[in-house]
Amino acid sequence: MNIYDSVTADDWPVFDETYYTGVAAQQENAAQELFTVRATTVGGATVAYTLRAADAAYDGYFSVEGATGVVSTVAGRPLDYAAAQWHHLVVTASAAGLSTDAVATVTVTRDASPVFAPPPSPLMVAASHPAGVVVYRAHATSHTGAPLLYSRVDPSSDEFAVDRDTGDVRTTVAPPLSLGAQTLTVLATEQGVGGLSARQTINIEVYDVAGNAPIFTTPAYSAEVPERAPPGYSVCVVKATAAAGAEVAYTIAADSPSRDDFAVDAASGVVTTTRMLDAPALLQLVIMATNLDVSAPTTTAVVGVVVMETATSGEAPVFAPVPDPVRVHVTWQQDATFYTVYATGSGKLQYVIDGGSTLYSLHGDTGELSTRRALQPTDVGTNYVTISATDADGLTADMTMSVEIYSGSLAYPEYTEPYYTAGVREGLPPGEHVVSVEASVPAESVEYDFTEASLSFHIDPNSGDIVTLVELSYDVQSLHYLTVRASVTGQPSLYTDVLVSVFVTSYQPPVFSPVAPLVRVADDVTAQTLVYTVYATHGGAPIRYSLRADAAMFAVDPTRGDVSTRVAPPLLIGDYVITVRAEDSLNSALYADVDLNVEVYNAAIVVEYPRFDQTIYDATVEEGGAAPQPVVTVRAATPGGDSVMYELNNEDAGYDGYFDMVENTGEITTLRTLDYNDMPLHTLTVTASNEVEPDLQDVTVVLVHVTEMVVPQFPCSQCRAEVWEDADVDSEFYTLTVTNANSFPNLVYAIEDDDSGGMFSLSNVAGEAVFSVAKPLQTGDYSLTVSATDGAASSLTSLSVRVNPANRPNFAAPSYNASILEVAPAGSYVADVWAVSPLGNLVTYRINKGNENDEQFEINADSGIVSLRKPLDREIYPWFYLNIVALDSAGSQVTFYVADINDNAPVFPEYNYTGFIWEGMSHGEQVLIVRAVWLLDREKRSADLAEENGFFPTPPTSPDPNSPLDREIQDEFSLEIVAEDNAGSGGHVTITYLVITIGDINDNAPVFDVAMETSYIISEADGVGTVVAKVVASDADAPLPSPNAVVRYYMLYGAEDQFQVDRITGDVYVSGALDRAAKPSYELLIAAYDCGAYQQLNDTITLTVDLTDVNNHAPYFAEATHAVSIVEGVAGVFVTKVTAVDLDDGLNLPLLYSIQDDVTADFVIDPADGTITTKRALRMSEQLAYNFSVYATDDTALWDMASMDVLVLLEESNLETPTFAADTDSVTLLEKLAVDTLVYVAWAEDGDVRR
C-alpha cells in the first residue's frame, strides 16, 4: 500500500554525488573540514544546505555551510573512536520549497597506542630463581583488539628475556642473578590495524633471599574450584618459610589478575573464594609472603585456579543469560562470529539452531553464533533465533534470543559483564548484598531498575547494588532470574540478566568406598610417593580430605584423596593407622572418617607380598549390553615372580552374582545386563594372594560406573500434524527431527506402523524426517509410529495426522492493492476483501499481521471492509502490507487491489533516483525500490516495474551476469526506468532515471613494487634519521576520501629498535646507534596495511641492510699484566708475543705495537706482530727483573693506544768456571788432634750469581 504526497515535483535540487565520504581524526578539538556537497536545479535556483546526523546523539557534532555545502566537524566537539568508528549524515539541499537528501559517511580514525597494565615498582626478583622462571607478565591491551607482539628493548643485562607472544618475563641464566637494580624495557606492537606500539620500563630489584625474604614451598600452586561454590570455599593453602623461624604474613598482590575473587588468611595462608565463580574459567592469583621480623623484600608465588563445570544427571541443560538484544553491525561479512551461547548440563553439549534461519549459523560444539552470509542494508532490524542445547543424557533445552542488525552507532550503555551470577546462603537476614551490576555511557549517568518488580530483591538505582529484601529459602526457590535495565535519559536502554543461586547445606555426611585391609610401603620410597587413594561420595557440596592421625610421615591431597609420603627416606619401619577424614566443604560438621592400615617394611628384606599396580581401578560399562561384557583386568605381582590368585567380592548388598572374575588372570566381566537407573555405580574389592604363601595378600578397589545409553530423542512423545484434504500428492506437510541429531551422524527415520492405508510417506533429508502425501487423502485422524535409529541405538515416537476437509474459505482474489492520500481523515475507505465458504458457513475477518505500526487500520469483521483508523504520514510509513485472515481458513498474505479506470499516467515521486550498493554483492541483491503511483484515484494498479527489487545491469566488462560487482572494473551504472500502466492501447508511460554508484569495499590488499631494490649497504657511522631505503606499495581500491586505498607502513620484525619506517612516506631510516661489531646485518620485515574501516589487508617485504665498518673501536689487550721468564746472558732471545684486539674490520683492523722508551736498549718489539726479543745479553748480576709497558694502536691513530704491562723475570745460567783463591797452599798440623778438628778452609769463587 503506497502513501504518497499530494504535491507533484517540478524542479528538484540534484546532488552531484549520490554518496559522500569523509575522514575525521578522533579527539581533535579544532574543526576539521570533511568534504563539500553540491546540488543544482534545472532552473538555476539558489540552493541552501542543512545537515543532521542519522544518530540523533551526534547532532551538533557536524555542521554544513548553508551557502557553500562545506561539511566540517564542530569545534570543541571531538569525536571518540572507541564510541563510534563511523557516522552517517543526511545532508538536505533545498530550493524553491523543494528538497532532496544525500547520505554521507564519516570515518573516525584513531591514534591511540596500546596500553600496558602498570608493573610493580620495583619488581622484586629473588637471586635464587633458576633459568626459565616467569617473574612477571608484561600485558598490554590494543584499542582495536589487534594481537600484540612483545619484544625486549635496551635491557641493562641479559639475565631476563621477554616472550614474543605472551609478554612473559623469564630468567635466562642459572642462579644466582646479579644483585641490585636492573631495568627492562618491553615494546608491545599491534599486528593489524594501525600497528601502533607502546613501551613499558620495568624496574627490577634482584635481592638475596638468604636470611631475609621468605621462600615458598613451590613457586606455583594449582587448585580446582567447582562452579557456583559459595563464598568462603577453601581453594588451597600456600606455605612460605623464613630464616630462623621468623613469622610470615600472606597478602594478595595489588596487581593480581583475580584479586577480587579470592582472599588469603594472613597467618595460615589458606586461600578462599570471595564470590561464586563461573565455569569454565582459568584464574590466576599472586600471593605475597613477607618476613615480619626484618625489613626484607617480599616473595611471590602464583596460584592457578581452574573453575570446574558441575552438572546433575537427569536435569535439562540451563542456558546462561543472553543480552537482549545481541547487536550486530550491518557491515559484518560472512562467517563473522558475533556471539557465543553457553549452557551447562551433563557431559558435552551439542547446540542446534532453528533450521529456518537464513542469516545465522551455529557451531554445534562451541555455541559460536556467526553470520551465514554478508549482511546487507535490507537486513537492518530485529529478528529472533531459537537455539537448542542437548546434553550427554539426551535432555534438551531451548532458548530464543533477539538479534538486532543496526547501521548507526547508538549510545547504548555498556555493561562490564554480559551477564552476572551470584550466590546467597539460605536463611540469611534481609539486606544481604548479592552482586553489583555496572553499565556506563560516556559523560552520562546511568539509572538501574528491574524490568519486573521483585519481592525478594532490591536494586539501588544509582549504584546498581542488589540486596535481599527477605530471608531466602532453597526449598521455596533455588534459582532467581532477574533482568536489570540500565537507562540513560534520551538514549536506548540495555538489559542484562542476573542469576542468583540459593545454597543449602547438606545434612548427610560423606560415605567412603571400602579400603584395602592393609597397605604396604617400602621404607626406601621417596617423598611424595603415592601410597593409596581413598574415595568418598557426597550428594551435597564438594569434599575436602584431611588426615587426623599418624600424619607425620604421610599427607593427603585435599581434593583427590591421594595419600602419599611426605618425608625423605628411610621411613620408620612399623605399623601405622592413618585416619582420613572426608568433610563437607560447606559444613564442617558433616564428615566421615576411615582408617587406613599401613605397614612400612624393610625393603632390604624381600617378602613375597603381591602388590597391585593400582590402588583403585576405574571402569566404565554401558547399560543394556548383553553379558558377558568385559569390565577391567586387575594385575598384581610379587617381588620374586610367584603366581598370584584373585578373588572378587561385591560390596553392594543385593548385587552378588552381577560380576565374575578369572581367578588366575584378574579379568572381570559382567554376568548380568546392567541398568543405569537401577545402580549407576558398583563397588568391588579384589584380593590378590600369593599362590605359594596364601596368607600374603593385597587388596584393591574396583569402581564400575554404569553409563546411560544414549538414544535418539524425539522432541515430542505425541507429535501432531495437520494437512488439507486437497493437498497434492508428493507435497510436504511436516518435518520431524530428533533433538540430539548431532550425536547420530548416520541416523535413519522410518514409519513402523501406519493406520492410514499408506496415505503418507517419509523421506530422510539431511538428518530430518520429511513427511509427504503419498496418495489422495481422506478426512480423518490417523496415527503413525515413527522410528529413528543409527543401527545401534533407536527410539520411537507417535505422530498423529489430522486430514482437514477441503472446505476452508476462499478469497475472491489472491491479493489486493489499495492506495490512499496521506491527508485522508480517520474512517476513510481503503479496500474490500471477500471470502466464500464452500459449505456456505459464515465468514469473519481480522487483520493478522502488518498493522503493528500504531494500529492505523481496522477491518469490519462481518463485511471485510478495511478503513483508516488514524491519519497517515507518508514520511514515516510510505506503505503497508496487511495480512488478512478469513476465520476457519489458513490465512493468506495479501495486499489490497481496487479496480480503476485508466485515466492517469503513473507518476514517479522523484524526478530522478540515485542508488548505492557495495561492490562484491551478488546478482539479485536489492539496490532500490522504485514505485510509480496514480494521483487522485480511489483504485489503481501498480506499475510492473514498481516492485522490482535489486535491478542490476550486467557490467559490460563482465561476461557472467551473475558475477559479483567489482568497483575496480566499473564504478557507476546509469539506468532508464519505464513505468507503464497498460501495455495495450490507451496505456500511459512515465520515464525516470536511476544512477547507481558502486561503493568501494576493502577487497584489494596493498602490493609492494616488485621492481623495488631489497638489499642495501650503509655505514655503521650513519646517524639517527639517515634514510636507508624507500618502500612503496599501491592499493587498487578507491582513493580518498575512502580509507581503503590509504597505505600505511609498519616495521614488523628484525629492526631491533635500530631502524624504523615512516608510516606515511615509506622511508626506512636509522632510529638507533649502529654498531657493526654487535650486529653486521639486519633482515627487516616491513608490512604495508591499508586503512579499511572494517578489515585491514596487508602485504610484506623483506629488506636486507648490511653495515660497512668505520674505525670506531679502540684496540685493547685481553689482560692488564703479562709475566714471562727468560734465561739471562743471551742476546736476541724470544721473550713473548703480545696480541691486542680491535673490533673494527678491513682497513681499520691492522695494529702497530711499540715498547716503553726506557727499555729500548734492552728489548725490541716487532711492530707488526708484537713479538718481543732481547736486544742484548741481560745479566742477573745487573738486574733480576724488568717491568715495562707495550702499546698497540691502529693505523689511523684516531683512538688512544692500548697498553699492557710486561714483567720479565731472569733465570740464572751456568756460564762461569769456579776459581780458588790460590793455586797452591799448605797447612801445618799438630799431632794428636781430636777427631772433627777444623784444619783448613778451602775458598773458591764463581762468576754466576748464587753459585
Automatic annotation (TrEMBL):
Composition skew (Pro residues), residue ranges: 953-962
One of the Pfam families matching this protein, by short name: Cadherin
Per the record, the major location class is membrane
InterPro entries according to UniProt = Cadherin-domain_protein, Cadherin-like_dom, Cadherin-like_sf, Cadherin_CS
The alphabetical list of record keywords is: Calcium, Cell adhesion, Membrane, Repeat, Transmembrane, Transmembrane helix
PANTHER family found in the cross-reference section: DESMOGLEIN FAMILY MEMBER (PTHR24025), NEURAL-CADHERIN (PTHR24025:SF23)
Q: What is this protein called?
A: Protocadherin Fat 4-like
The protein's organism comes out as: Priapulus caudatus
